[in-house]
């Protein structure tokens, strides 16, 4: 089920929105972003959910694209998803990365740039690196929101960058952070 946006920014080329929901059920999105690992194989958390929903063809396809560099992105078909594309981006492991903020912003930028290059109009984005990669949400959310707002004014084809969060508390933090940045 796609939920209506709870926060919207629309003063640039693309909107930045925040919804609570299931990333694989954003039926109006052309692409979803997978918070991927270096080897581009099914993992835990959002990555595992996406691989299961996309079906058995995804992992053999993505394994050929590995290894995925830190902050880099690659694209694959959505296979059994309604989204045409899956954009796999590798965010930082918070406790071992020498520069987590830079690599987190780079991961989102490379994903949105790849979406734009592939003429994606709506892209669903998870909480990159905030699961098993251990990035503290209070630090990561402002980085992602600020970068999304910058990217929203630079894209040509993307019309919506949608943060999709499963947990209500995390969704609320994204909403509050977006509101703060919009007031600046």
Task: Explain what you see.
This protein has 184 residues and is an alpha/beta fold. 36% of the residues lie in helices and 18% in strands. The protein has 5 helices and 7 strands; from the N terminus they run E-E-E-H-H-E-E-H-E-H-E-H. It has helices at 45-54, 58-63, 100-117, 137-152, 168-183; strands spanning 7-9, 15-20, 31-35, 73-77, 85-89, 122-125, 160-165. The protein has a 7-stranded mixed sheet with strand order 1-2-7-6-3-5-4, sandwiched between helices. Helix 4 (137-152) links the parallel strand 6 (122-125) and strand 7 (160-165). Helix 3 (100-117) runs parallel beside helix 4 (137-152) and helix 4 (137-152) packs across helix 5 (168-183). The model has no long low-confidence stretch (mean pLDDT 94).
Q: How many strand segments?
A: 7
Q: What's the N-to-C terminus distance? A: 33 Å
Tally the helices: what do you get? 5
Strand content: 15-25%
**What would you report as the Rg, rounded to the nearest angstrom?**
15 Å
Structural class: alpha/beta
Spatial strand arrangement across the major sheet: 1-2-7-6-3-5-4
CATH superfamily: Leucine Aminopeptidase, subunit E, domain 1
CATH topology: Leucine Aminopeptidase, subunit E, domain 1
The overall pLDDT average reads 94
